[in-house]
Amino acid sequence: MKAKGHVFKYGDNVDTDVIIPARYLNSSDPKELAAHCMEDIDKEFINKVKSGDIIVANKNFGCGSSREHAPIAIKAAGVSCVIAETFARIFYRNAINIGLPIIECPEAAVAIAAGNEVEVDFDSGVITDKTTGESFQGQPFPEFMQKIIQAEGLVNYINSR
Amino acid sequence: MGMTMTQKILAAHAGLECVVAGQLIEAELDLVLGNDITSPVAIHEIEKMNVEGVFHKDKIALVMDHFVPNKDIKSAEHCKCVREFACKNEITNYFDVGEMGIEHALLPEKGLTVAGDVVIGADSHTCTYGALGAFSTGVGSTDMAAGMATGRAWFKVPSAIRVVITGKKQKYVSGKDVILHLIGEIGVDGALYQSLEFVGDGIGQLSMDDRFTIANMAIEAGAKNGIFPVDALTEQYLKEHSKRSYKVYEADADAEYVREVVIDLCTLKPTVAFPHLPENTKTIDEVGDITIDQVVIGSCTNGRFEDLAAAAEILKGKKVKKGVRVIVIPATQQIYLDAMEAGFVRTFIEAGAIVSTPTCGPCLGGYMGILAQGERCVSTTNRNFVGRMGHVDSEIYLASPAVAAASALTGKISDPRA
């Protein structure tokens, strides 16, 4: 499985309140949530994002509230992968559980610039910056989580057991 | 090799003699929690699973607290969805208007969480029950759905930071100051994927309400959970509130910790977290001249009886500064009643504050106190992220109920000791 797209770049501690503000949590419809994705940190995100694009951020991405609406909004906005130095642990679980590909790679998170074209190979964990030609080795998932990812989420994984 | 308190509870619930940090395990759950925002998503997911009903109708708690009493049609539809699910599955612990309170104040009060439990909740502040000596952690809606269906959840066994609390705290220093100080020390990701295990002779100085506040904000340091040892005070609380039997776990003497942090209560001062991260802390004597427009006293962090008592003591017989809106929110119906009987509600209203029915409301920018552009709020809640309580250009200063009440009187962030 691969992802390929242009990069939206953010800093440290992108919290789930700015990914999807609570004023929109009276809905659980992915399309409605996507329409307000990243609104409080980047008003232009939703106008500019194209299917397949990639979010790159620094440490502790997805901190704060446990709202699964956050990875749901990102996925429904068309984002194919989130690369970060580190993820907040609830966001990490939620992304795996709903089938939003994420990958930890401090080197890539620091080096890749906004707008660059990036390809991620989830089988090998290799992240390639097509714009600069640089490659990075991301943190591969433990086998147990790979099974959930391969089943495209926790619901399918439980159903398959 | 020895285990931490968290590791011992997880091992017992996974049916294992021993676990080590980093190990992936599947553990039995004693309680699965959801609220009116996260449960509808979980119900949608459980409907996609090949399961008949829920694993145990007594071991699920559904608490309508975030946008309740419903603020608009969409939130009313969410609650209706959860109400119908609770009714269909005969969920014992479904709490709606009239019985509800803010989930993390309500569940311990109702005796639904006890020492030795493993609890997951689709709310990040589920870590609150660590105050009772339980392992409890926040998850998302899909994990909640899987938990409701199977009664089990997967965990990566966490390593731990040992937080040693020593000394005797001064007047107007509370659990909120302890946890804000700690987050200021280690940062908002200082305990990422780890447990915060609180130990030390200073714990005897901390009331149960202090401990709930501290465990509640473990997530604001990125922690998986925060946990306190069970002492005589914990056991008294458990006996007063719960009919359930509980189990006391203790860390092994040779348990491994990745780090140790010492907090001396003797020198701890009232502490304030400046926008827009809980780690941006200053002691009260460093804050300078910050004028405010609103004060919120409430939430799962600081809406308990002692919190209201601390605020009432400062506000009694005085008037809040003209132009400052002061919103007091008892966290549960019982706390509301107790506050009435203690005369706090009269004190608040006579001082010029309002007293609301229990709700998470303004803490997450839902309703009941949304901030306009450029406004500042001193709040006893848990997060001061950009836009958390309203406009993206508004500001939240996190503080204890005593600091919040003192600030309400002066219209600027103020020292309750002054």
Order of helices and strands of chain A: EHHHEHEHEHEEEHH
- Number of helices in the DSSP assignment of chain B: 13
Uncertain regions spanning at least 5 consecutive residues of chain B? none
Integer-rounded radius of gyration of chain A: 15 Å
How much of the residues of chain B is beta strand, in percent? 15-25%
Uncertain runs of chain A? none
Average predicted confidence as pLDDT of chain B? 98
| Most extensive interface between two protein chains, with residue counts | A-B, 39 and 50 residues
Shape category of chain A: globular
Percentage of residues assigned to helices of chain B: 25-40%
Largest sheet descriptor of chain B: 5 strands, parallel
What is the 3D form of chain B? Answer: globular
Distance between the termini of chain A: 23 Å
Number of strands of chain B: 18
User: Oligomeric state of the chains?
Assistant: heterodimer
What structural category characterises the helix and strand content of chain A? alpha/beta
If you compute it from the alpha carbons, what radius of gyration of chain B comes out, rounded to the nearest whole angstrom?
Answer: 20 Å
Describe this entry's structure for a reader.
The complex is a heterodimer of chains A (161) and B (418). Chain A has helices spanning 16-19, 30-34, 45-48, 69-76, 89-98, 106-111, 143-150, 154-160; strands at 2-9, 54-57, 81-84, 102-104, 117-121, 126-129, 135-137. By secondary structure, chain A is an alpha/beta fold. In chain A, strands 4-3-2-1-5-6-7 form a 7-stranded mixed sheet. Chain A is globular, with a radius of gyration of 15 Å. The two termini of chain A are 23 Å apart. Chain B has 418 residues and is α/β, with parallel strands linked by helices. Chain B has helices at residues 5-14, 39-46, 73-88, 103-109, 141-150, 175-186, 208-216, 232-241, 299-302, 305-315, 333-341, 344-351, 401-410, and strands spanning 24-28, 31-35, 60-63, 93-95, 118-121, 135-138, 152-156, 160-166, 195-199, 225-227, 259-264, 271-273, 281-283, 294-297, 325-328, 354-355, 376-379, 395-398. Chains A and B meet through helix 4, helix 5 and helix 8 of A and helix 2, helix 3 and helix 5 of B.
